[in-house]
Amino acid sequence: MYDIERQQKIIDILNEKKTISVNKLSEMLYCSGATTRRDLVRMEQKGLVTRTFGAVMLNANSSNRETSFELREKNSISEKRSLCQKAVDYIKNNSTIFMDSSTTLLHIVPFLKNFTNLTIITNGLVIANEIIYQTKHSVIVIGGMVQPNTNSILGSMALTDLQRFHADLTLISCGGIDSNFGLTESTIDSAEIKKYMVNNADMAICLFDSTKAQTRKSFKTCEIEDLDLLITSKDTDKEFLSLFKDKNIKIVY
Question: What is the band of 238 on the pLDDT scale with cuts at 50, 70, 90?
């Protein structure tokens, strides 16, 4: 079982039980106490739970509910993992990679164990922590203001820091992708960060599921032509994907 799936089960249990002992939680997860405690430490660092005297409870503030909601998207976990598994084919040993702070890219971390000497540059605190925990690769976290509800580093300081780097590959997701308007995000800060990642890499790949197709958010990240590859799910509308043939954009699904 992947770490994120086990954390999902912990959230489900806490939504039902409200509070539970660590020992009982381990029994319900069919794993060791050490594994459970390790998961809970990482979940506490993310602001999802609070541990106290051998027990654990789910945090209830608004920012945690938003993060919890992302982790609770059960139907998309396998889809995101599938997208990331396809993206792995474009990763090479000894390379430098930009990765955004999306929950989609979080699912690529287990696959990174198959590579050597990667340098990951990211604006995501959660994905940085997962890479450090699960692999031996180098991680660079760009500096700037932390947005609590997404654990992303955004803003002008982050953009200035990002300009210092060049990558062999950029892997990003998107809030929406429109055949005419391009890639979009819900916030200008997220759009700008991803724009710099696309511009400062030799190859840029966008991973998106069918729900993002022909969807337009408020802020533009880049043109479709700025990308080298689109990776999407098999159920993405084929008529929509056909609109990219004239743009010479390779599509994998």
Answer: confident
Q: Which of 61, 38, 65, 41 is nearest to 51 (CA)?
A: 41
Per the DSSP assignment, residues forming a β-bridge with 208 are: 232
- For the segment 89-136, what is each residue's pLDDT rounded down to a tens digit? 999 999 999 999 998 999 999 999 999 999 999 999 989 999 998 999
- Residue 4 in tokens: 């994120």
- Neighbour-count burial of 148, counting CB atoms closer than 10 A to its CB (0-12 exposed, 13-18 middle, 19+ buried): middle
Note the pTM of the prediction, 2 decimals.
0.74
CB 143 within 8 A of CB 123: no
| pLDDT tens-digit readout, 140-158 | 999 998 886 677 899 999 9
Tokens coding 32:
């060791």
Helix-helix angle 3-17:33-45, to 10 degrees: 80
d(CA 251, CA 241): 8
Q: Are 161 and 196 in contact (CB under 8 A)?
A: no
Query: What does the block give as tokens for 180?
Result: 């005419």
Q: How far apart are CA 33 and CA 186, in angstroms?
A: 40
Q: Long-range contact list for 128-136, CB < 8 A, 24+ apart? A: 129/42, 129/45, 130/3, 130/106, 133/42, 134/3, 134/109, 134/110, 135/109
Secondary structure of 9-22 as H, E, C letters: HHHHHHHHHCEEEH
CA 55 vs CA 23, 45, 65, 215: distances in Å: 8, 16, 20, 43
Q: What confidence tens digit (pLDDT) does each residue in 20-45 have?
A: 999 999 999 888 888 888 888 888 87
Q: What distance in Å separates the CA atoms of residue 190 and residue 195, rounded to the nearest whole number?
A: 9
